[in-house]
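Support request, please re-run this one:
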Amino acid sequence: MVNLYRKGRIAEGKIARDLRGKGFQNIRQSAGSRGPADIYASRNGVKYYFQVKSGSARLGSEGRRDIRQLAQGRRGVAVSIH
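Re-run finished. Output below.
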């Protein structure tokens, strides 16, 4: 059986490395992926909040609402990556 948590963490790590290569700074992966955002990063003074989904997982309407509220409250940008 595939450990879905591990698979998700691997996908998040790949995204974090890609963001670093694209000039993002202060990249942080959330501990335990329990919050609305999996990765926090900034670039050119703008804060970004990423929700990463892998495999057949999709971000539902509640998840979209949560990450948007987080980004709005912190004056940042919400991003969903699959």
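The mean pLDDT is 90. The longest helix spans residues 4-21.
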